[in-house]
Specification:
By secondary structure, the chain is of the alpha/beta class. 48% of the residues lie in helices and 12% in strands. The protein has helices at 3-15, 19-25, 29-40, 44-59, 61-69, 77-82, 86-101, 107-120, 127-149, 154-161, 168-172, 177-188, 203-212, 251-267, 283-291, 304-317, 366-386, 406-415; strands at 194-197, 219-220, 227-228, 246-248, 273-276, 296-301, 323-327, 341-345, 392-397, 419-421, 433-435, 441-443, 453-460.
């Protein structure tokens, strides 16, 4: 299968799924592409092209739609663009983004490949329209894109940063205009991979990894001690991954999960039983078990597929014997032992990771945001009730929206007078950390290795 066809197959699949379906399958676009590439025995060059086209299309989909719609020879172009069949819209969006952002691929080949796929999918009657739109994009689109990039209008800055325009009121409830402009600048950066090093490796072994990944621009991070790479990588293709020498994990995720070990050392406490209420694929769970050697960790996850991934992840890291797995709704499960520490990495909009994982944001709406906040409050209230007296609850989201962060903490603290926010005890006052308003702390996506995160540590007296 060629790269253009593969990219359109993945885009069509992701764009036609509801958020609930995405949540059940646990699939991301890149995972779909890897599976497709294996099934079709795709060449590495085609995989690379497909990956680039998928990311370009999804990262700024709203922007490409706006630019392309302006070349429809009809009144009210955006409304008419929305009436086109979904696959046709995918072709136009991918063609527009590819023509304006791909640097090492022929625009003519891209357009011809898209037209061929339209015919193959029985959308041949749209080829003249799509060809005309993409011809205009190739001729005039760069000028229009440059004007949008240099615009001072917050809506256009948001589109260039890949922030859905509908969500701007939510952002402006959290950040002032100057702060939001800065966040837009952060989200324009191309994300890159971080390798969290196993604590079992000595310094010489770490430096061997740095030398081994020199072709990816490997260097040690002063912030986390992990290895920064200059691009995103497929972890399974890196030597040492299967042996558990490192884990590909965003630097914000590393910093968030490290709070448990840091606070244990600060308070000279042993958190014997730790509960991870929404363990996902087990990346943070693996880090916690590696760092807290005397603890056991109970992993709850609603998705069987993600739970299987977590099991395999902890096996890869050699810590699975200290893990307990339960599959089900976290609001209905009971822990094996009352936990000393509860980590709730709550399901959220993922607004802080939209630059790295852009596929989720286009299915969101105000209704989805309200449902997310409702679920977060229920989960956090349950986490507090489960935790031992004198224990701690760590609330984490990969969101930069106050509705999912400070507002949630405020309600829980108001309803539980015996709980206090102790996040400030970690003394995170330097960049990229930013104090919440007033609770918790944000990790700002200031570099290609950082995503936007929020953390709040609650002591249950």
């Amino acid at each position: 299968m060629r790269g253009i066809e593969a990219a359109l197959n993945v885009l069509s699949s992701v764009n036609r799924k509801s958020p609930d379906q995405n949540r059940k399958s646990g699939k991301f676009a890149i995972e779909m592409l890897r599976k497709l590439a294996a099934q079709e025995n795709m060449k590495s060059t085609d995989i690379s092209l497909a990956s680039s086209l998928i990311y370009i299309s999804m990262r700024r989909r709203e922007l490409w739609q706006k630019i392309a719609a302006d070349y429809l020879v009809k009144s009210n172009p955006e409304a008419n663009f929305a009436k086109l069949p979904g696959f046709v819209r995918d072709c136009v969006v991918m063609g527009t983004g590819g023509l304006l952002e791909l640097r090492r691929f022929s625009g003519g080949v891209l357009v011809n490949g898209i037209l061929e796929n339209l015919r193959a999918r029985n959308f041949g009657k749209f080829t003249a329209l799509v060809n005309a739109i993409l011809h205009k994009v190739g001729e005039l689109g760069a000028q229009k894109l440059e004007a949008i990039k240099n615009s001072s209008r917050i809506e256009e800055r948001a589109m260039w940063a890949g922030i859905p325009v509908w969500s701007l009121p939510a952002w402006l409830k959290t950040w002032d205009r100057t702060e939001l402009n800065q966040i837009c600048d952060y989200m324009i950066q191309q994300p890159a991979s971080t390798l969290r090093i196993s604590p079992n490796l000595d310094q010489s072994e770490v430096m061997e990894l740095v030398a081994k990944f020199e072709k990816f621009g490997a260097e040690i991070s002063k912030l986390s001690g992990a290895i920064h790479l200059r691009e995103t990588v497929n972890p399974t293709e890196l030597d040492g991954f299967n042996e558990g020498k490192f884990t590909v994990q965003s630097e914000s995720s590393i910093l968030a999960a490290s709070i448990i070990n840091k606070f244990a050392n600060l308070g000279r406490k042993n958190f014997g039983h730790i509960l991870d209420m929404c363990s996902g694929r087990g990346v943070k769970a693996g880090q916690i078990l590696q760092e807290c050697e005397s603890s056991e960790l109970e992993c709850w996850e609603i998705s069987e597929n993600r739970q299987k991934s977590a099991l395999n992840e902890l096996k890869r890291l050699g810590v699975v014997e200290r893990a307990i797995f339960k599959t089900g709704n976290a609001l209905e499960l009971s822990p094996e032992n009352q936990p000393d520490f509860v980590m709730l990495d709550a399901p959220c909009t993922g607004s802080g990771t939209w630059n790295r994982k852009p596929e989720s944001k286009w299915n969101l709406s105000w209704e989805n945001l309200d449902k997310s906040v409702y679920t977060q409050k229920k989960l956090l209230a349950h986490a507090v009730n489960l935790c031992k007296s004198g224990g701690y609850v760590l609330y984490i989201t990969c969101s930069l929206l106050k509705q999912e962060n400070e507002n949630v903490i405020a309600e829980i603290l108001a309803k539980n007078p015996g709980c206090i926010d102790v996040t400030s005890f970690l003394n995170w006052k330097t960049r990229p950390f930013r104090k919440g308003k007033p609770w918790g702390v944000y990790i700002m996506p200031e570099t290609p290795w950082l995503d936007g995160f929020y953390c709040a540590l609650i002591l249950r007296k």
